[in-house]
Write a structure and sequence with these properties.
This protein is mainly alpha-helical. It has eight helices and three strands, in the order H-H-E-H-H-E-E-H-H-H-H.
């Protein structure tokens, strides 16, 4: 919330107003808003290079915006090896939800701020299905057995997609067709994991 105060005797604005005004300016620009929404969409798997591709911004510009967001307490970083993961703080999450609501109002769409939009979910499920079938084609199709190392490699390849499914599973999907697509994908991964275990020698 923007706090308005009287100018002091020296003609300077209250610092609290300036800080909040700076945050408002940040999210009246397209790229920072898209960057925050991209972080919310990626959740804990976010990092700067992924976000810059998602919003079609340069890496340098993305890291500059991320530094600004960290300064205002909207995001936090978590270092794992060479990778610096990005997560939203409670304040950042509130702003991201509000931005989704605002965009939905502009589009004339009924708002469900706690759920991902149907279109985004459909794209994610379609992408996951394509990648899962790619693993099947590369690793399992036509195989009669698997070594322990091959089985471990396949499990690692499936790992990120299983985590994505668990995230989606927590969403209360309202669209029936989308719900069916999700459960088909979930069943397919379960079938492929069972096939992997069966082929393991």
């Amino acid at each position: 919330m923007l706090v308005l105060r009287q100018r002091n005797g020296y003609g300077d604005m209250n610092p609290e107003k300036k800080v909040n005004g700076d945050i408002e300016k940040m999210f009246l620009r397209a790229k920072p808003a898209r960057i925050l929404l991209a972080i919310a969409k990626q959740d804990e798997d976010s990092y700067a290079s992924i976000i810059s591709k998602e919003v079609d911004a340069t890496y340098a510009h993305t890291t500059s915006v991320l530094s600004e967001m960290e300064h205002y307490g909207l995001i936090s970083f978590r270092q794992e090896g060479r990778v610096k993961y990005i997560g939203l703080t409670d304040l950042g999450n509130k702003i991201a939800k509000s931005l989704r609501v605002l965009l939905d109002i502009f589009d004339g769409i009924e708002v469900f701020p706690e759920f991902e939009e149907v279109k985004e979910l459909q794209e994610k499920i379609t992408s996951l299905r394509s990648r899962v079938e790619g693993i099947y084609k590369d690793e399992l199709s036509g195989r009669k057995n698997l070594s322990l190392s091959e089985s471990t490699r396949i499990s690692r390849r499936f790992g990120p997609y299983c985590r994505e499914l668990r995230k989606i599973d927590k969403i209360n999907i309202q669209n029936e067709e989308l719900k069916r697509d999700f459960y088909k994908l979930k069943k397919r991964i379960e079938e492929l994991m069972l096939l992997k275990d069966k082929l393991k020698s």
